[in-house]
Write a structure and sequence with these properties.
about 35% helix; alpha/beta; elongated; 13 helices
């Protein structure tokens, strides 16, 4: 193996799996000392942030056909006042699509398109992102239970006109709903863990507005962002384990901004994360030390109280957070029951069934 590559892999292994001390955790030394971002990241970031509708797609030879509605003289949107605010971004996007992608002047708006809240005909009760649209030559009506359905309907209309390369929609009714309700992705330029640090602790915008807009247009409705609870959420139960104050402003701002596009935000974590053996939390609360001398033993009342508190504080501070994706067994060391070998070093958990410990 090339000596340079061997040295890099060795240092990487140390950074990812080597001995961690309380000092490295507290100081946040997670960025690899030799890390240099790939120069292509800048180009990818600029591409993600570029406008979705930035060039005409209209075919000058395409004319209206039988069975189509003509929107070439523009479209006026009539929207229920109670839902208009939630659709502001989608309405603006739809109008940009008409003007930029199809070349229809803004002042033209002769085709009425009515957006209403209500039961979406032809859709299962309670279906996610459901809508019923009826397109006629004289105008169209879209009915959906909520903003998510109406937003999805506008994107559906954009898709229909994109296929036709012109401002034409097929006449008749159509009903759509989401069969797969959670469609979650992650930014390809967001830093993650050891090599480049944690995304919620850096100033960069890894989810620019136009990237969120592109995500919803290609069918996504969620993103996951990674973080450590011990670096984000303050705790009174185990004050040595978290920051002095919550560090959740970036996450809260992202949830608020993403929601305008119909994108939900999930926190991805691997918790309860083990701590270095010399971490102050074990000195202050020796009774919570679990397997390997590093696990936070969930068989102790204090750790259970801690988990309840940080989850409650997390969702209270970030009310629009859609949920938590937690790999609590399999990737990093969490509970004492990470393996049959590890659990033997915990006098409490080794006498309990694995499923019981993990469920707690």
């Amino acid at each position: 193996m090339d000596p340079t590559r061997r040295a890099f892999l060795t240092s990487l292994a140390v950074a990812m799996e080597g001995p961690m001390t309380a000092a490295t955790v507290d100081e946040g030394v997670y960025r690899h000392p030799s890390f240099q971002p790939d120069p292509r990241i800048g180009a990818i970031s600029r591409d993600l942030a570029a406008p979705l509708h930035n060039a005409t797609i209209r075919d000058p030879l395409r004319i209206i056909k039988e069975g189509e509605a003509d929107l070439s003289n523009g479209c006026s949107l009539e929207i229920d006042g109670k839902i208009a605010g939630d659709l502001a971004v989608s309405i603006d996007d739809f109008q940009r699509f008409l003007t930029v992608s199809l070349g229809i002047p803004k002042e033209k708006a002769s085709y009425p398109l009515r957006l209403r809240t209500g039961t979406a005909e032809g859709c299962p009760a309670g279906a996610s992102e459901a809508f019923h649209a009826r397109i006629e030559a004289s105008g169209g009506t879209i009915i959906a239970p909520d903003a998510d359905g109406l937003r999805r309907a506008l994107i559906h209309l954009e898709d229909e006109m994109s296929i036709r390369r012109g401002p034409y929609l097929p006449l008749g009714p159509v009903s759509h709903w989401a069969v797969v309700e959670d469609r979650i992705t992650h930014s390809p330029v967001a830093p993650y863990r050891w090599l480049s640090g944690w995304e919620l602790e850096q100033d960069g915008d890894f989810y620019p507005d136009e990237y969120l807009n592109k995500l919803v247009h290609c069918g996504m409705n969620g993103i996951w962002v990674a973080g450590l609870l011990s670096r984000l959420v303050a705790t009174k139960t185990l004050p040595e384990l978290g920051p002095k104050e919550h560090r959740l402003e970036r996450l809260r701002n992202l949830t608020e901004r993403a929601r305008r596009y119909g994108i939900r935000v999930f926190l991805f974590c691997i918790e309860p994360r083990s701590m270095p053996a010399d971490h102050p939390v074990f000195a202050a609360h020796p009774e919570i030390r679990g397997a390997g001398g590093q696990c936070l033993c969930v068989s102790t009342p204090l750790v259970k109280d801690y988990i309840r508190e940080v989850m409650r504080e997390l969702f209270a501070a970030v009310p629009l957070l859609a949920g938590v994706i937690n790999i609590y067994k399999g990737e990093r060391t969490t509970t004492c029951w990470m393996s049959e070998k590890l659990v033997q070093s915990c006098p409490r958990c080794r006498t309990r069934p694995q499923v019981e410990v993990i469920a707690e």
